[in-house]
Design goal:
The structure is a homodimer of 345-residue chains.
Chain A lengths: L3 E4 L3 H11 L5 E6 L13 E4 L8 H14 L6 E6 L1 H13 L5 E6 L2 H5 L6 E6 L2 E8 L4 E4 L9 H16 L3 H8 L9 H21 L14 H13 L6 H20 L3 H14 L10 H9 L9 E8 L2 E8 L1 H15 L2
Parallel strand pairs in A: 1-8, 2-3, 2-4, 4-5, 5-8
Antiparallel strand pairs in A: 6-7, 9-10
């Protein structure tokens, strides 16, 4: 499961080094219609796929397999996935299953992709209306994390990724957590500084995944903020007014920090610090107390929950997580009230 | 990669024990139209697929995924593949990729399936005209080996499987090899005796695979007999007169035993013992010296060969194998001549 993690702002040099380690007969790039444009010189073998989660389908992966066959890809070839989570998920699945596994490298081009989809070995496609229904646990041999693609990302996308960075700090290190809360989204990206933050964040995920690659237990730590966050995301989606994933996660992190305080005495100071950061940067919260019943219902059906109970990962303190914590509807209701107070909505 | 190997002639009791170990919400059986009939009571959840290698396709696996979704299969479900290599290959791939991996059990119903496809973790489907082009290395959690399905197998199928049993003995144990050469196909199957032979044979494969699950090196030992055997099989197929896989392997084993004698001083006594057994049981050899050029050309393009050289696994003695051995066209020509002498054709 060990993935080689490379942090650099010279992506092509890193790929050159991977190719130089040698033995590959062909290097094939997989990119979407947007990320293909990031390549100044078109590579000899490039498979371009349509962008967007709605194209993360069996049809697209079939086209990728066809192209790989046409190009003469073998088990001695190298695949490079250049894109956001959609490209690394689908490209990783295509590579992992072609001839039972071709080596692949992920080059995430979004902040969310860098700290979430690109590391950890989850690959897959949507199927039958369900997200990531078909897939494999298959690690990229190397993941090249770079901030050089982020200058042109829309701000909601940057903030979306940053929420996962916050989550990783909450799972691991209070100094890092406090440092992140000083982040100012209004100034241009400081690439060296952000790359250091990513180095910390990606390593947290990698360490947890290395101890539980197939999500049997400890990996559930990474669900912090997501039981509640997914409910926000799903309800907004159902109503035809989707919210960015990371915003839902940010609200989920605050709500689950409150739940952590209720159940595990997580310090209220840190709840407030987090709450104010989220208020200042992820304010557009579109729910009221009239939505609580719908949200609770969604949480009960979350894949982490069983038998109608609501299950989440909670914290006794920053860095001290506890998986498989059950909470009551009353707990969640109280936490949602406090979230709305903190956000001032 | 560890697979739990169960040898029994009470298959339903073994499955009952696996289910009793517990935690599974649903048990789903995958069978083909023939092997589904082996179930005296139809199980609650049964997915029936068409039989034959020509149906080992993306279309069939898509139908299986659809059915699994409809039945409510989750990561806590259990899949049981009941059939020959086509069912265990395709059903294994479907299970390994559904929700990134559902536990599955293989119950091979053919001798060839029992000693070949069902163990070792190779799953997959044919794609774009190529065999096993899409797939995954994904071990069954349990493999239930039983001889109770073999009484009704056509004799060429029994012999086909037996050639792989011979191969495993040649890779591991001279006593077992000599014991197998006493086998008489004209008497009814002695189930207890055959189950013991399978116990030995399957364990040989499992041990080799455990040391090299993803076929990086040592697993190539299992290709003994197959560089030459595949050439026989492919040429017969091309001419529209296919031969059973195991017959091609049996002729391949003899040819590669001769090559082993030429290159590694494999004892000529054992070449002769093997040759006479193959003459007595796998005689219908459809090639002459006019076919040598075609056969050599196919061997040069075997996936084990590189740069036009012919590569195979050879033996210095029974149980003492050497992978990645290159042989010349002259060596192969001499070996084919001796094969034809031994077969008396």
């Amino acid at each position: 499961m060990a993935q080689n993690l490379i942090f650099t702002n010279d992506v092509m040099a890193a790929i050159g080094q991977i190719e130089a380690r040698g033995g590959h007969n062909i290097t094939v790039w997989i990119a979407d219609v947007n990320t293909a444009r990031l390549l100044s010189t078109p590579p000899r073998h490039l498979i371009t796929i349509p962008d967007g989660d709605e194209n993360k389908t069996l049809e697209t992966v079939t086209r990728v397999w066809d192209e790989m066959e046409r190009m003469g890809v073998t088990r001695h070839s190298l695949v490079i996935n250049l894109g956001g989570g959609m490209v690394t998920d689908l490209g990783g699945f295509a590579a992992a299953t072609f001839k039972r596994g071709v080596r692949f490298v992920n080059v995430p081009t979004t902040l969310l992709g860098a700290v979430d989809a690109a590391v950890g070995g989850k690959t897959g496609i949507n199927f039958g209306g369900l997200k990531n229904e078909i897939g494999a646990f298959a690690p990229a041999s190397d993941v090249i994390t770079s901030t050089c693609f982020f200058d042109t990302l829309p701000m909601p996308e940057v903030k979306s990724g940053f929420a996962e960075v916050l989550k990783h700090a909450m799972l691991s290190d209070r100094n890092e957590f406090l440092h992140l809360l000083d982040h100012d989204f209004t100034v241009p990206i400081d690439h060296d500084e952000l790359l250091e933050r990513l180095r910390h964040s990606v390593q947290v995920k990698e360490d947890i995944v290395a101890r539980d690659p197939n999500e049997q237990g400890e990996r559930k730590a990474l669900n912090l903020g997501h039981t509640v966050g997914h409910a926000f995301e799903s309800l907004a989606m159902k109503r035809g007014k989707p919210v960015p994933h990371g915003y839902a996660v940010a609200w989920g992190l605050v709500t689950e920090a409150v739940l952590s305080h209720i159940k595990l005495k997580f310090p209220s100071d840190d709840v407030h610090r987090l709450g104010y950061f989220v208020r200042d940067n992820y304010r557009d919260f579109p729910f009221t107390c009239d939505d609580y019943d719908d949200l609770l219902e969604l949480m009960r059906h979350d894949k982490k929950s069983r038998d109608g109970e609501i299950t989440c990962t909670l914290l006794a303190a920053i860095g001290d997580y506890r998986i498989d914590q059950t909470v009551t509807a009353d707990d969640v209701t109280a936490a949602l009230d406090i979230l709305r107070d903190l956000l001032g909505v």
